[in-house]
Write a structure and sequence with these properties.
It is a single chain. With 96 residues, the chain is an alpha+beta fold. The chain has a 4-stranded mixed sheet. The longest helix has 11 residues.
């Protein structure tokens, strides 16, 4: 599997949410050694939402929604894919 986004999704599915207790920022390393910064909103529930950024990246307006989901028991991970590869947010930034 060469797609880094797919690897991140698989990693998120198999990681224990308890490992993130109290964490707000973490780095997920891909098999190729890339570091992807992830903002995590820990929750006590058993659900994990992997919130992938849109073409223009993560926006400050998404944080209150992620916090509200965490308060309702849904843990949220928001990877910064643009920041991981030093790309400017934009329509074609994440294309191969």
């Amino acid at each position: 599997m060469s797609n880094p986004v797919a690897r991140l999704c698989l990693l998120a599915l198999f990681c224990l949410p308890a490992a993130l207790a109290g964490a707000d920022q973490l780095d997920v390393e891909t098999r190729l050694g890339d570091q992807i910064p992830v903002t995590a909103f820990p929750a006590a529930g058993e659900r994990l939402l992997l919130w992938l950024p849109g073409e223009f990246g993560l926006t400050p307006r998404q944080r209150p929604t992620a916090e509200a989901l965490a308060e309702r028991g849904i843990e949220v991970w928001q990877p910064d894919l643009h920041g991981a590869w030093f790309l400017p947010p934009g329509r074609y930034s994440l294309l191969d």
